[in-house]
Batch of 2 targets.
Target 1
Amino acid sequence: MAEMQQPGAEHAGSGHTGGAHIHLPAPTAWPIVLAFGFTLVAAGLVTSAGVSLLGAVFMIAGCIGWFRQVLPVEQHEEVEVVEQPVVIASSRQLVDRIILSTRHRAHLPLETYPVISGIKGGIAGGIAMIVPAEIYGLIAQHSLWYPINLLGGAGVAHWSNPSTADIAAFHWQGLLVATLIHSVTCLLVGLLYGAMLPMLPRHPVILGGVLAPVLWTGILHAFMGVINPALDARIQWGWFLISQVVYGVVAGVVVARQGKIPTGQSMPFAARLGIEAPGLGWTRPDAGPPDDEENR
Amino acid sequence: MADQTLPISAPLPEAEAQRVPWLEWMHSWVVTVDHKKLGLLYIVYAIFFLLVAGAEAILIRIQLAWPDMHFVSPEVYDELFTMHGTTMVFLVGMPILFGFANYLVPLMIGARDMAFPRLNAFSFWLTAFGGLLLYFSIVGGFGLYGMGNAPDVGWWAYAPLTAKAFTPGHNTDYWALALIVSGFGTLGTAINIIATTFSLRCKGMTLMRMPLFVWLMLIVSVLTLVTITPLTAAQIMLLIDRYLGGHFFDAQAGGSPIVWMHFFWIFGHPEVYVLVLPAFAIANEVIPVFSRKAIFGYPAMVAASVGICFISLTVWAHHMFTVGMTSVGNTFFVLSTMMVGIPTGIKIFNWLATMWGGRIRFATPMLFCTAFVFQFLLAGLTGIMLSVAPWDWQLHNSYFVIAHFHYVLVGAIVFNIFAAIYYWYPKATGRMLSETLGKWHFWLFLIGFHITFDTMHFVGLLGMPRSIYTYEPDRGWNTLNLIISMGGFVQAIAVLLFAWNLIYSYVRGRAAGNDPWDAWTLEWSTPSPPPAYNFAIDPVVRSRRPLWDLKHPHDPDWKYER
């Protein structure tokens, strides 16, 4: 614990004895007089010339007073230094540090899924979710094209307020746009799964495959009415949820079944860049991978 | 005047000597050049106007709570939203942040006062009188509707509405003159902060050892110098148009109202950063102390702040996408606006990284700062949305925009102002604010804020335009507006609790000691409240956390900092 006294001081860095004085700028009313004058000059423009005139008088007085404050010598007041003890101490508890060997350093995640696993998962999930979507189309709307046109309808330029029969019919533009949207989205989400699943604490397939689609569907359900009310009116959210969960579970299982590969995080940056140079095998004692000693 | 003291022949009894007559006490505040007193004057002045502007907001929300309301007249409604905006930006936001700068910058850099103490007093009084002049318009500014009208042209005062033909009377002149007067005050303070920071740092305090608070205030001051000047120039041009037959903004006579927009927004958008950078500054001090960790990425934070300063000067015309600029102009301002997201993103990551793994204490200042981080992130995201020109074409002048900038101004700035008051109140008064009342204040304000401003996004998406007096019941906005207004009342209750806490704790608060938060910057090495001279001995620092070094002599920061 350190203690810092606030003893008396003549000035910076000089002797500090109790009862000493410090020079500070003297209090003065001239700044407020000048400011008031300036304000009155402005106010006079919208009230009366007399107000501006009075403001000008205040301003002149303020300027003269101010100059006399600082010329020829700036006026100061002597402030007595009051002895006030100040304690500089931390209230935080000091704790012993556990000394860990480099073996215990955590590099998370040590392993991850390769990029290709996410792509595979996305493709598999994308194919699987078509099944419940088409079952819905056949059962509820008696059409294979209904769910496809719901997804791809935004890309059909001339569609405005289509009837149910329109949506249930075949439209090649709708099929094209739906295929594009479906493929890109499934691949991107698959890649996201590949990146996320190693980081989920436990039961990654349940968390990523079931919980995430439920949350995603909930968010979409909440916002769709604002974003696109027409589409919102036509989506059957129960079926939508089923197809999302099917996607999540299938993509999750496919990703989880792929072999993991070690991450490159523990390698020096230059090595990750593929640079071959002497010294890259050397690692700092506090930053090496856990089994450096054994590997050597 | 107050430069001499009367000789007192014999010492007074101690109790009597300490009892200062109130007139003398008042006089000491009027003639003061002490940066701490002036800082407190700025803060008290701003809190007063915060209550005034809050009351105006409540009146606006009552008017909009139900369709077809006539709680106030359309004329009064125009005045209310004009005065609310003008007051919050010019009489609350800037004064309170300059108040904190005044109080803290000299203490943090180990100085005895600001570089120009008298200019400091002059600047404060100009700001104060400017505010009073603005509100005097309620008595003196007769406008279109007779005597006693406040300005009613919006806080942006677009031409040609401000032309004499469309706004007769003097209320617009009061708006311009009051802001010119307070603008000069602002310039004086900015010059003072820059000079103080560059010339009065204590021994050992290099620029890269300055607290981030001081860095941010330095950047804000530079930004202020650049941005207040075009506003002042535009207001003088407006007065010339109105009284001397000028045609700067008169399209019929060869002028252009668009010129006003350029002048206004080249001030107005950097102004957002003038307000939000001090809020960042507050977070930079509070978050590390309550996370028990040094700020993450100090050099990156400095670089990001300087980056924001420069980029913010290049984005103003994103407020003008709907005026019909060229596609090149639109593209430039879309990209420059999006670029602001980079340095601000760095800051958000650094705050999170500071909190990450820290031993966080959720005292009231930290609660406000934590909410700030997440709210500012959301505000930034809606800002990026609005930076996209086609999106802006859809939502310009809608309540979505209102929601976005209130997320910045309230969700970020006001939250951090509250954090700052809870954090430094013990230093300024020697008393702790009540934590119980503080937590009530925080949670009520947080809930009220989200009820109001989250909902406001939706009513904006549904097409409700800003500044409308009332609306028809078949628009689908009824329930949402009622919810927004109810949230406003919850916030008002929270602010009243806060005001009560300020008063109650000043009298009954627990003694604070010099360092109640176990903090690391120099102001905590002085008694609470600090003496007039701040430091009896000039401090010497060797790292960014001088008090950490003193408290932990075996593990000082200067061993590690480069």
Target 2
Amino acid sequence: MDMQVAKKKLGLKERYAVMTRGLDWTPSYQKMEDIYPYIAYEGIKIHDWDKWEDPFRLTMDAYWKYQAEKERKLYAIIDAFAQNNGHLNVTDARYLNTVKLFISGISPLEYVAHRGFAHAGRQFPGPGPRVACLMQSLDEIRHAQTQVHAISNYNKYYNGMHDFHHAHDRVWFLSVPKSFFDDAITAGPFEFMVSIGFSFEYVLTNLLFVPFVSGAAYNGDMGTMTFGFSAQSDEARHMTLGLEVIKFILQQDPANVPIVQRWIDKWTWRGYRVLTLVAMMMDYMLPKRTMSWKEAWEVYFEENGGALFKDLARYGIKMPDCAAQIALEKDHLSHQAWSTFYNYAAAANFHTWMPDEDEMAWLSSKYPESYDKYYRPRMEYWREEAAKGNRFYNKTLPMLCQTCQIPMIFTEPGDPTKLCYREVDYKGDKYHFCSDHCKKIFEDEPEKYVQAWLPVHQIYQGNCFPEGTDPTVEGFDPLAAVLKYYNLEFGRDNLDFEVSEDRKNFAEWRGQATKNV
Amino acid sequence: MAVAAVKQYEFASADTVDKFHGAQLLYIGWEDHLMFCAPFAFPFPPSMPFGDIVAGVLPGAFGYHPDFAKIDWSKAEWLKSGKPWQPDAAKSLADNGLKHKDVIRFRTPGLTGIKGSFS
Amino acid sequence: MSTVFIALQTNEDTRPIVEAIVQDNPSAVVNEQPAMVKIDANDKLVVRRETIEELIGRPYDLQELQINLITMSGNLDQTDDEMVLYWNA
């Protein structure tokens, strides 16, 4: 009888050493600084690249194997979802607007992340981080592609998703996530790793994916849940990379600590401002809520981030100062954000609405300090006016923050009745900010942020109309011209959910799905 | 502090006044009325009389609010860059000292939004 | 004391893994959420290959966990035999 004798395999640590460091070589006829030209100018000092190790010890061969398995699982479900008219199983058609927000606001960032990690990885002389960045770069393009595939099923039936990438580069509020990522990829490789790898992936990504994906599951959206979890399975690796990179940089040289601290302070705030969209999604856009924004912030930032920064204290890193202001904003953020999109519903690629009585009761219970006192009165007023046929559409363009590019909607820390105004004079011009933190980020690098492509200013400069538009003709309608430039159709892709084609179609199709017609 | 860069890093501001076809930007906020989620941005010619803003522009921007019709403009308190400021309605924006990207706010004493919620 | 956690998709692959984690970590608290399960522990959480293998009755490679992993927190150290999440402070 033949006995199968298992070949002695290398252990995980040995395999990792052979398949990463073992594949690297020392250049002999080119200078290191010519091969890696961007590694010194940020001021970060690295003495020994071999000190960096991926704690998952994932090698490229294992990477392909597990990623292939994830893809097989994902596409089996996406097919089943499409074959089974899965789009009609979501709680109600309002939910679809979270999908629109995701495809136009987040998926394009996945693609930019792919480019960013490819670039950063190329610049690192150490094979450990280079391989990890390569994997993450591949993950990110996979995320962009699987999200587009999964959401294309919705695009067949519902409005606002048809030209998401075009929208991402143009629509006013999408300049917020877009400029956030543009800021990161135009930084050096170390700052990029701290901004996206650490601050976004490690500190904040749980707040993006976990509530969004769990929310999708809770609202019957199997397609989104599946790509979300499939992407999220890569995120755990990204978070690990982010944390290891930070620890590695900090251990290499004490002079790195203040630079890294400034980056953590900046990018925690920048990332948090982008998550404003997630806050309103959780509290207002999911017909069935999983947890409130405030609860998610407490679990994933205050508790988990608290543990993280306690751990990093031994390197001399502290919790970013902005955490104090964020704690004050957590009772207000989602309400201020949803009010904003309710204001500007005529210029967005998704629908908004006012919460019903039960939903307002939920908001009161989750936000006992703030909702009834500051937000319920305006929302009830809006609801009453809408019922009378006088739905509020704000048609005057808002003032934007120069750094985060969000309209100046945020209130003074500690005083929810006063808007927060900050300004700086720089080279003969004024610049305005929503907060002390956005102002400080500008003051640290004004040359960068004076270039900001602020949608409101661009509209007034005449850069956001279709080619050949003459804004001086009698009766010129700027909103109509801007929507054309966005490739959005007035009355179909925008306005209130109540009057939307989505609402009407969903009701009709769901009716057909549950009874004989 | 400056941007860390591999070579000289200098770019023009995207929003200098020369790019607005003869207009300059003015931001206007109404205190205690957060139903309007943010202050507004307007492009105005510097020669425009300030009074034309109050009479001709603000009703279109803020008129939806039930408090707007109750405003007594003689009692309105103005702020420019957060400091008390007194505009002259008959004078132009330029003669009122308003420059490109200035921000002004007005407070309307006694009016505090929907049910006093500052909305 | 700080909390470390691991979150996994809720499915047939992860059921025995969750069971193994609970067996090996006395401080583990299992938190069921829509389509996912989050396990919190004090300061340290260990996923042991042997415990999983005993429960599923076949050899198991801890890297298979990647397929069903959603998120985690803490410093990580993975070998052939165990995956450890921990905080130093």
